[in-house]
UniProtKB/TrEMBL annotation:
Keywords on record: Disulfide bond, Membrane, Oxidoreductase, Redox-active center, Signal, Transmembrane, Transmembrane helix
Annotated protein name in UniProt: Putative membrane protein
Alphabetical list of PROSITE patterns matching this protein: THIOREDOXIN_2
Signal peptide annotation: none
Gene3D superfamilies hit by this protein: Glutaredoxin (3.40.30.10)
Length: 265
């Protein structure tokens, strides 16, 4: 009795060798296509991940620029555009203590002279709670002289204020003031910060390099003009301005003390 021939392994009954080879080729192509798709998908995922990281970095940089640079318009803590920066803010004021506002430009030679003569008296009156001492910082001399000194040093002072070292920086900057008309670098200004005892110099340097408080300083300068200040140094005690010839009334310890006592309510 004749038997039906057994089909060869790996092929259909009645299939030719050519059909078997074609089936293997098609299977291989499908397998290859599937791997390619997997690779393509993996590549897209990787690219999207890179885009997300880069986008995050850019966003952070923009956010930092807004917080510390031309996009920042916030005043330093303890300051307002019109009232200036209060020094010795932790001191409890005596009843009726007047506000004494000092209008200064860190590039101003006359301001250095006044600070040398009266700075310690102002500081002591503030420490004793007899006055609320405020500094209204200006930068008009940058435009007048063409130098870049007033604004960088002012930024240095307010960046130091971020670390509780405004008064120390302020005093150091006037003690070692650069000549009027000289531009300064962050490295120059950093010497004042070191003298002041600023602890985190990396943060301070980034703050100054970014010009974190430039917008505030510009606004403070404009506000001083609106308040009737025409030069520096000028003191405002109560509602009265002392500048030019009248500055002499508050240019001695006795004179300043008498004016403060008269303004105490």
């Amino acid at each position: 009795m004749s038997k039906k021939p057994t089909a060869q392994r790996g092929s259909r009954a009645g299939a030719t060798p050519q059909d078997s080879r074609q089936a293997k080729i098609q299977a291989a192509q499908k397998a290859s296509g599937s791997s390619a798709n997997k690779i393509t998908v993996a590549g897209i995922v990787a690219i999207l991940a890179i885009i997300a990281v880069v986008g995050g970095v850019i966003w952070n940089e923009k956010n930092n620029e807004k917080e510390a640079g031309s996009g920042n318009t916030a005043p330093p803590a303890g300051a307002t555009v019109d009232a200036g920066y209060r020094s010795f803010a932790d001191v409890t004021l005596a009843s009726g203590a007047p506000v004494v506002t000092v209008f200064e430009d860190f590039q101003c030679p006359a301001c250095k002279q006044y600070e040398a003569a009266m700075g310690s008296t102002l500081a002591q009156l503030a420490k004793d709670g007899k006055i609320e001492l405020r500094y209204h910082i200006m930068n008009f001399l940058d435009d007048k002289t063409g130098a870049k000194q007033s604004t960088p040093v002012a930024n240095g002072a307010f960046c130091a204020a971020d670390q509780g070292k405004f008064q120390e920086f302020h005093d150091a900057a006037y003690t070692a003031q650069h000549p009027e008309g000289d531009s300064v670098t962050t490295a120059d200004v950093s010497k004042f910060a070191t003298t002041a005892g600023v602890g985190d110099m990396d943060t301070w340097t980034k703050c100054v390099d970014a010009g974190k408080y430039t917008s505030y300083i510009n606004a403070s300068n404009e506000s001083a003009g609106t308040a009737g200040v025409t030069g520096t140094p000028t003191l405002k005690i109560g509602d009265k301005l002392y500048s030019g010839e009248t500055l002499g009334e508050v240019a001695t310890a006795d004179g300043l003390t008498k004016v403060v006592e008269a303004a105490t309510k």
